[in-house]
## 1
Amino acid sequence: MSLSAQLPALQVVLPLLSAPLAVLLRRGWLAFAVVTAAAWAAFAIAIGLWLQVDALPSNGVISYHIGSWAPPWGIEYRIDRLTSFVLVLVSGMAALVLPYSRASIAREIPQESHYLFYAMLGLCLAGLLGITITGDAFNVFVFLEISSLSAYVLIALGRDRRALAASYRYLIMGSIGATFIVIGIGFLYLMTGTLNLADMAARIGAIESSRPVLAALAFLTVGISLKLALFPLHQWLPNAYTYAPSAVTAFLAATATKVSVYVLIRFYFSVFGDSLVFHKLPLPQLMLWLSLLALFAASFIAIFQDNLKRLFAYSSVGQIGYITLGLSFDSVNGLTASIVHLFNHGIAKAAIFLLIGALVVGIARPGAAPPAPTFDRLAGLARRMPLTSFGIVIAGLSLIGVPGTAGFISKWYLVLAALEKGQLWLVGAILLSSLLAVAYVWRFVEAAYFQAPPPGRELKREAPLSLLIPAWVLVLASVWFGLDTSLTLGSAVEVAEGLVRHRP
Amino acid sequence: MALAVVVLARTRNLFAVVVLSGLYSFLMATVLLALDAVDVAMTEAAVGAGVSTVLLLGALHLCKSEEAKPAHRPWLPLALASVTALVLIYGAMGLPDFADPQAPIHQHVVPRYLQNEVDVPNVVTAVLASFRGYDTLGETTVVFTAGAGIIALLRRPGRRARVEEAPPCADLLLRLIGKLLIPFVLLFALYVQFHGDYGPGGGFQAGVIFASGIVFYALIFGVENARRVMPDRLVERMIAAGVLLYLGVGVAGLLLGGNFLDYFVLDPDPVHGQHRGIFWVEVGVLITVCGVMLKIFYMFASRGRGEERG
């Protein structure tokens, strides 16, 4: 047995192992060490897999048979460029958020629950990685349950009592979504007799217009849209992000909705084949309008929020609109924009939520629990916490899509895709929605830089480095990937071409 | 069943709701039995009708038994549910006929499952624990997640509340019957566990039955006595240990030169290796499921008594 051949299994199994170990060890710091080690190992493995995919010819796939049962009888792990891309994003986020969480949750979660927090984070990571890497429809659902259940618990661990209500709401909506997904998978299984996604794609062509397949498409679309918080189905998201512990918000914002987008891409492009999804049904129009609604309505609501965390949560709903907008074009440029934005928005938003976590530590009275980051508490913040404030501004620029930041790249490709379709008004809409982003980022700038700090609070009191370093790594990354796009854009173009041009 | 659901939606008495949903589960189990899905029927009866009814009653103990009147009529949810049902029916109309041997579901992967390569008479067990053993690992992890999540959320911060014990049920008859029945319940659980290769059964069902034996004991002789048999700390360890055992079998496959969860390499004789793998995996499921059920019960039970005084 060579280690490199077993990387696909280890990618998920190591984080999965860390969770029960953390529960058995029961000590906060031991659990922290185990889960962090697993997350770093997962990140290393994700990079290893990336290199393995690189070594394959273009559009190559790594296939791993769990239990040595060949697909479609057993469960297959299937890694192509897109899988590998998302794996790197998810595990990289975990590797950054975990060191951050140690200092962060010390102030937000009671000491004796720390080991459970780490166990849940390990489970959530394993679940998200499992969804991404698997090539089996039912396995997607099983790992979706793992990641969702642990996410509900992580959110409910928030200090504010409203976290419980937010988590409960997410639980109800998430369970409905999961049920829809499993109904859709059930229909597909009944019609094709297989659960393996690649096998399903091969067998679905002949029956793609049959009623059960259409019903499956409907259920899967609604179910996954609930999970990825597509506009009218987003109601769980703002409260969940607002009241969850800071580290959890950052991790979920960067990964959970993104993995759902990945699942949607998989089903739309790999299983159903885009001829069914995009040419025979009015799905692209529907998605286009919902995305536009998300861009404008959610960003507009964001401007009037009083809580900074809530503001950026609504901004997430808007930004997801850009991703689905890219999908609705059904073109190489559109899909490229979606995939790049999935990554770029992930790192920028995670940076912002990590910095907000640092910020609430800074504005707390010494020894007291961190307060909610409402705007009246942020006046003159830049003088007290220059690094934190500056970081939020830079990541905010990436949300707006200013040239030189990662956000610009994704918007640029969206505009290209719209021009390609000859829809000039869409270009206008994209630019106009960016102005809304300017408005909500400006609210923070105004409060932090142009208002005088309240008396007695002028002293510089920056957040601890353990919080700032992971956050700033992401801030710098969102600038780096705006300047050097070979990694993100290169792979996104490759993936998009593979998915759109090579129709089954 | 339809009647039960309508009454469920209309009634405001939560006690009736709990009993009715138990009834619904039993009916569902019968339907599953009629569909020849004995393993699923057994799980539904044990989990849906048995343990969850007890847990819901435990939860009911903590809150009022009348549902509050909703502020507005739920027309929108009703409309959404109707649309969902319509799509479901629309899709189901196009499905192949029930039990049609030509249906794709019977033609593609199933024939190989039925060839019984792993030499386990109960095909369900073979598919569950071997062919798709990784899904079962995932499901066990879901149960583990639920258990650990319950601990994280319901733990009472700080103090170990020492509330004095409510007097154990004094009814002689109940105690007598309990004493007579409980050993058999536990024995039956073990039978279901180890006979799962040959007949319906397996770790999930056995875990629930075993846990319900203990819960039964706790209901009659008091939770503190049950805690003496199965202490909290042990139960929490069980939750993690079961999953670890399952994962351990998978990793053993790795170390012995196979893929993850490869049972063939566990023994020089591949078929024997399959048996060994399935056996230990099912034990892992049993431990975690039993631990989680008990933990949830303990959590509700101890909370109830504390809250009443508070």
## 2
Amino acid sequence: MSDLLHDPFIQSSLLPLAIGLLATGVLHLLRRSLAVAAIPLTFVAVFLLVVGLPALPPPSSMGKLFWASAAGLVLGIVADALGARGRGAATLLAVWFAASLLWIALPALDGVGPAVTLLLLLGAGGWIAFGSGFHAPGTTPSGTAPSGTAPSGGATGPASVLLALALAVGGTALIGSSASIAQMGLALAAAAGAFLLWNWPAERHGWGLSGQVALGIALLTAAVLALFTDSRAVVLILALPALAAGRVRRLLPLPETGLGRAAGAAAVTIAAVVPALAALGAAFVLGGGEASPY
Amino acid sequence: MKKTLFAAALFASAAFGAASASAAPVTYKLDPAHTSVVFIVNHVGFSNLFGRFDKPAGEVTFDKDAPEKSSVTVAIDTASVDTNHEKRDQHLRSPDFFNTKEFPQMTFKSSKIEKTGDNTGKLHGDLTLLGVSKPVVLDVTFNNQGVSPASKQETAGFSARGTIKRSDFGMKYGVPAIGDDIQILIEVEAVKS
């Protein structure tokens, strides 16, 4: 059993999938709006298993990533439990993300390249908070969802975006020989996959601030990859348009029926996955397609 | 007579001067071309992998007559890690292992030297790796001191061996598959400053 838990493949795929499925179910029972917190919760749990509990205060970027993620998880759970939404919740998310990113990136800001990376990631974080069109639980683009149903434009779209982004980060890290970052990226993708399974074929959950935090964690993981490793993380710029995939749904004249929502979710997923695949392809070509043999 | 006294005085002062010079500690700089810092780590129980650091630097202040008064300071460029496989070296430079962007150097500063034999001793000191300082002890052998026939410079040569646990320094990734115990082999030639 111990060997199984230490297997990098299990740690970054089946284990986070299982934890994600279980955590989503448990949180759903506790309070439906908290279910999406299963994604950052799974990330934190897998981090503890793969990297271990970092010291506090953390001496390195990976330690900072853990504690920033843990803080985001708490923030998300509290905000979703209180039903925080709208501009206030978005501002809270933006402050958490910007503070976490600056905390992680500060030791690496020794030139133009890292500064540009920081600005790009800050912009992407701002987009997640204010511009992505992903909504707090219980809200729709036009208002509040009917009681007892998942919100229109709810969790499937942003969860698909997270899945695609996390795969891009994990895959780029794997090709760039940064195994623990690769494992954490892939674990985040598996956690998003578990959440998506709970929301298929019918959406059961909203996205909430915890979901937004999960997207922020994907960007923070990308920051560690870009600023502290030899990986060709510049290719992740190609994956950033995935964040705008949620907009695709608005452009499509789809009816507010079960079939229409399913078609919309599929369109968002495709729009998110294509840029992520482009980033992975570029990383593969630039990196020689070979990972670390340890 | 005067000439004899002068000669005697000159001889005495020269001899005294020479004696005090031999007793004084001499500072040497590490010669990177003839210094090897090698580590051995177990790989998944199948083999023991060798790696090295290509850019060591430092000083040895050596007192041959009183070795316990000697001291050593070494700084190693962690990004110079070399295991004869570029992809693996990239991984070793990442936050999983040496985290070279955040911790570009590891350092060793001696605190005490115990003499254990005619030309052997235990070198105590603090190793700082990934921002964590821990005491380590190396078994040291003094090999030779004198003018090198190759470089024509005053040179001292030492060997050192020891073992550390990488997890003590927060380098936990891959333990236990990638061994926690790291054997260290150091061969030093140092040239008089």
